[in-house]
Design brief:
The structure is a single chain. The strands form four sheets. Strands 9-10-11-12-16 form a five-stranded mixed beta sheet, with no helix packed on it. It has a four-stranded antiparallel beta sheet with strand order 1-2-3-4, with no helix packed on it. The chain has a four-stranded antiparallel beta sheet with strand order 5-6-7-8, with no helix packed on it. Helix 1 packs antiparallel against helix 2. By secondary structure, the protein is α+β, with helices and mostly antiparallel strands. The longest helix is centred in the first third of the chain and has 24 residues. The protein has three helices and 17 strands.
Length: 290
């Protein structure tokens, strides 16, 4: 890009010259002719723009070429797409979530294509609600390994949540579900990994609660460390960079900032009260969205 933020005409001209060199070895005369004609226009307009010192954005974007075509196989709308930023070693991994499926792709080592690495279908399991027929996935997040006993090294975890009210933790290295966290009474709509502690997970549900979990707890019944009753609808939450606070967004446009506190002590259930009340974990409460 140039200093003005436009795409460099010089780079387009260089690419045009390179394409003509490649085309000269091609037996497809019709294709060579089209490329040559297009590139001559690029080069001609590029030289004029270089002389004038200005770049015509419309001309530049008209001559851009599509390089990637990605075909998704969910067969329905995609609810979330997320690159793995939890561990730099696995930054090539891209996940998409839609319907009752999650697909993990390799986004770096397959040239111009996305290669599917893992395909997960959320089906009925022994813990499923017998009355439930929908198992759609709504949200996901990445978590890195914690280095705990029994964990595989060089592993990364994909966490999924949705209509079955359960949190599915998938080991990418094992390519299987290694844990199911249960406790929500409504569809799970958001997930967030703790920024410094790889064992801690945050989940948001339509049951109006935010829960914190230890995903490696030996006893599944103790995996839920804390439940925040939001006092109304909540559909999104995240940690601050140090992991000491939680920011929650409600369905009525309210934003609350809550103190995490010491997870090893204190109450398991926290009812969210107004920031003005004594002892409240809510330090800030704002309502700007309508």
């Amino acid at each position: 890009e140039s200093q003005k933020g436009h795409i460099s005409v010089k780079s387009i001209m260089q690419n045009a010259k390179r394409r003509r060199e490649i085309a000269s070895d091609s037996s497809d005369d019709e294709k060579v002719e089209i490329i040559d004609e297009n590139d001559e226009n690029i080069e001609k307009n590029g030289k004029n723009e270089e002389k004038s010192g200005e770049v015509d954005q419309e001309f530049v974007f008209k001559n851009m070429h599509l390089r990637h075509i990605t075909k998704e196989n969910h067969g329905s709308e995609i609810n979330q797409i997320l690159i793995n930023h939890s561990d730099p070693r696995f930054s090539n991994m891209l996940v998409t979530v839609g319907d009752n499926q999650a697909n993990v792709y390799d986004n770096e080592h397959m040239g111009k294509h996305l290669d599917i690495y893992l395909h997960f279908i959320n089906k009925e399991n022994p813990f499923s609600d017998s009355k439930r027929t929908q198992f759609g996935l709504k949200t996901c997040c990445w978590m890195r390994e914690s280095g705990g006993e029994g964990e595989l090294r060089d592993d990364v975890y994909l966490v999924l949540g949705g209509e079955d009210k359960m949190i599915h933790i998938i080991s990418i290295k094992r390519t299987k579900v290694i844990s199911l966290l249960r406790g929500h009474n409504g569809t799970i709509v958001d997930l967030c990994a703790h920024p410094t502690n790889p064992r801690i997970l945050l989940s948001v549900s339509m049951d109006n609660t935010i829960k914190m979990w230890d995903i490696h707890a030996e006893d599944p019944s103790t995996s839920c460390l804390r439940t925040f009753e939001f006092g109304g609808g909540v559909n999104v939450a995240l940690f601050n960079p140090s992991g000491t606070k939680i920011y929650g967004g409600g369905t009525h446009g309210n934003i609350r900032v809550m103190e995490v506190g010491d997870l090893s002590v204190g109450k398991k259930l926290v009812r969210i009260t107004k920031a003005s009340e004594p002892g409240s974990l809510v330090k800030i409460e704002k309502r700007h969205h309508t």
